[in-house]
Protein: Pilus assembly protein
Amino acid sequence: MTRSPLSKVLQDRRGVSAVEFALIAPLMLSCYLGAGILCSALLAQRKANHVASAMGDLVSQAVTLAPADLADICTVANTVMQPYDTSSTSLKMRVSSIQEDGSGNVTVGWSYPCQGMAQLTKGSAYSGPAKAYLSPNQSIIVSEVTYAWASPLQTYNISWLPGSHTFTDTFFLQPRQSQAVNCASCS
Structure:
C-alpha cells in the first residue's frame, strides 16, 4: 500500500526544528535588542546622576570660586558623561548657591549654567525643595543635570523600541569649608 503525498508530508519530522526556530527567532531578537537598549538607558541615567553628584561635590568643597573654575568643573562633568553624547542638545547642567536669609526667604546667591541650561537670576526667589535642607542664615549648593538620551537604534525608526528619554537629577549639598561658597563674579 502506498502512502498519499499528503500523509508523507504530515508524518515527516525533519524540518520541525527549523520551523520552531523561525517562529521563535523574532521574539529572541526582540528580547536581545530590548535588553541592550535598556542597559544603555540605565547606564546613561547612572552617568547623568554621577555628573550631578560630582559637580555639586566639587563646588561644595570650595570656599571661593570664579567663573573659570566653574567652567573647568563643567568640562570635568562632560568627561564623566563620556562615551555618551555630551553636546549642548543632550547634556545641560547648572550649579547654584541657594541662601536662606534668616526670615524664611530662600533666594539665589549665584548660578552658573553649562551648555544651554537657563541661568537662575541672582537674588530671585528659589522655588525648589532646597528650603527643606536649609537652616536660617545658611547656604546650600544645588547641582542640576538634564540628559536627553537617544536610543542607538532610533535612526532605524523601529516603532516598538523606545526612541528617547530625558533624565533629570538634582543634588543638594552643604558647603564643606564655609557657610557659603562665594562666587563674586557669578550672576
Observations:
- The chain has a mean pLDDT of 88.
- The beta strands are 91-100, 106-114, 139-150, 164-173.
